Amino acid sequence: MKGRGCWDTASLRSFCSSGCLNKFKKDDSGDDDEATTPADKSELHYTLKNLSLKLDDLSTCNDLIAKHGAALQRSLTELDGLKIPSESGEKLKAVNERATLFRITSNAMINACRDFLELAEIHSRKWQRALQYEQEQRVHLEETIEQLAKQHNSLERAFRSAPGRPANPSKGFIEGSLLTPKGEDSEEDEDTEYFDAMEDSTSFITVITEAKEDRKAEGSTGTSSVDWSSADNVLDGASLVPKGSSKVKRRVRIPNKPNYSLNLWSIMKNCIGRELSRIPMPVNFNEPLSMLQRLTEDLEYHHLLDKAVHCTSSVEQMCLVAAFSVSSYSTTVHRIAKPFNPMLGETFELDRLDDMGLRSLCEQVSHHPPSAAHYVFSKHGWSLWQEITISSKFRGKYISIMPLGAIHLEFQASGNHYVWRKSTSTVHNIIGPWGWCGVLWTFDDCEPLLDHMIAVTGVVSDSQGKAHYVLSGSWDEQMECSKVVHSSPSSPSSDGKQKTVYQTLSAKLLWKKYPLPENAENMYYFSELALTLNEHEEGVAPTDSRLRPDQRLMEKGCWDEANTEKQRLEEKQRLSRRRRLEACGPGSSCSSEEAEKEADAYTPLWFEKRLDPLTGEMACVYKGGYWEAKEKQDWHMCPNIF
């Protein structure tokens, strides 16, 4: 029996299920994260509009229920007036009461929904105002941080230019000499404000000429005794040396980097101008390698030095050494994560005599400032050593990473000894979603030029200042060299500057970057060598970076556990320092300043401080004993740092 003007049961069920209930189910299954993204004002209005539409649907349902309820009650009243048995009358009365109760309950539900919507509208306006405020505060905070960074740099420059302070030594190079200037200190990099290189900042112009013309020019001027064809034997295809085939099967992947969110602003707002090594950072900012392993990664293109051993010409050898120094930056363009700060006394060995022909050892010799000593021996006839102190500062929108210290390279057969310094790297756009890394070059053995993303060029000259090769390329891709056959000054430009014009032969490829492994974007953009550096190996010292627990947990993707372990290790290191400080306490003759220095002092196990006769600086050099201890597996002298 149907009431007048009412829908049938099937129609009502269809309306309620499709028009109302399905809408609730669809919206309830939405992604909460999308509803809370900062830029979505329009989405808030859209949500309110949807809620209003749902209220209209509920009101329609309410009207239909009221109509059906009234029709049902009229029908029941009509039935009640008919002569029916008493037993049926009781049942009819019960149905009538249930219908009334159903109508009351439905009305209560609709009223509750209306109250909910009104409350949601009130609070949504508050949320909208709060969201707008947070957006404004975020923009204001970013502007404030940038302004503070500028003020910080201005104060540093003002302090350096104050009366009585010595001027910074000028940066230069000796063209063609095998040694850099003695005593040159790169610490000034920390206080330098860097700018992108301009297109007209080159001091020379290169013109490619034909080989016959070049040889004729060489013969007429007597400028070179080295034939380009002989140089081909060493320089041409230097980058094409295949990677060493290892007898040991090494891993080619690590667990994918997990996607953990982190409130970046809560950490960075207190970091302006501070030394990053003194700021406690969660592992979310790290990559699962220590700074010692990152330093060892510079040896990926060791074959350039193996090739340089066979050069009979010093200028040709310098081309390969220059390419090697540039190649160490080739993996940094995507590597914006921070390596782990090594614990004091931490070591890392790379024992690859069989496949790479070398042995490498690093030791963390100082914690404040963080400093690492490194020694490499190659069975092909060269050795490399350095002590690098990493200074890094947060500048507002970018981080400057300034390696301080000299790198030495010596070829045993010729006795040629090269010294250079690492360049400043900058991680840009750390607040935005797309970070990238740039390099500022201060390369001592070649005339420097930088384009902060791509170009690296230079001129290799002999001890008389005569140019032999022009280097060109990019620090993240490849390097080439072109033989100079003639040079002449150009006409002065409008600003009075004069450049040198070099006529060269066609360029020869010195070095080319290896392609990244498959899935590298999910493995911290590690190279093939980097993927193997933290692989577990038997027989290493108990202080080796591979055994560091927080780093291992991070590599496995257990970041929460890694953060807990990192805090434990850092507290253990602080406790060791406090004990050293107590040893120079009130009962000793040390002043407080001397006690602080004594507490920070550390006697390395495998390196010792010596005066570098070439740079005039004190530096840690390898004193021997590590590989002998490894052969005996005698590590009793190693500290318990993990």
UniProtKB/TrEMBL annotation:
Residues 160-189 are annotated as: Disordered. Keywords: Coiled coil, Lipid transport, Lipid-binding, Transport. One of its GO terms (cellular component) is acrosomal vesicle. The keyword Transferase does not apply. GO terms for molecular function: cholesterol binding. Pfam families: Oxysterol_BP (PF01237). Residues 131-158 form a coiled coil. One of its GO terms (biological process) is lipid transport. Belongs to the OSBP family. This is Oxysterol-binding protein.
